[in-house]
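Q: Make up one entry.
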Amino acid sequence: MAREAGLDLVMLSETGALGVPVTKIMDYGKELYNRKKKQNEAKKHQKIVLIKEIRIRPKIGEHDFQTKLTQGIGFLEDGNKLKVTLLFRGRQVINKNEQGRELFDRVGKTFAEQGLLERILEDKEIRTDSAWSKVFALKKK
């Protein structure tokens, strides 16, 4: 019957409700085409969120700090997440907690000056031996 119509006999399930295989007569090539088309359409509507990173050292100059955070605020406003990483070298690791807290307080003050503090979410904090990172994101409106 399927050959006469120029279609394919497709098995949907090996055992149906009565234990009998369930089949359907259809144009299988057209079905595959439609599935692929739906997948591509779903991909178009996805929004990819990137994590942009800013790396800072404890002895960063004020102007450099402001420049990097201005760039980071731009990343946040574009809809990306911002990862601020503090990198410590040698003996700086000893005072990591104090210096890291100071720098992240400065980051918070800069966000407050820009009027972003109430819109910022702190996603996660990652601490390793020589680095300390925090991920920030803007709340959805």
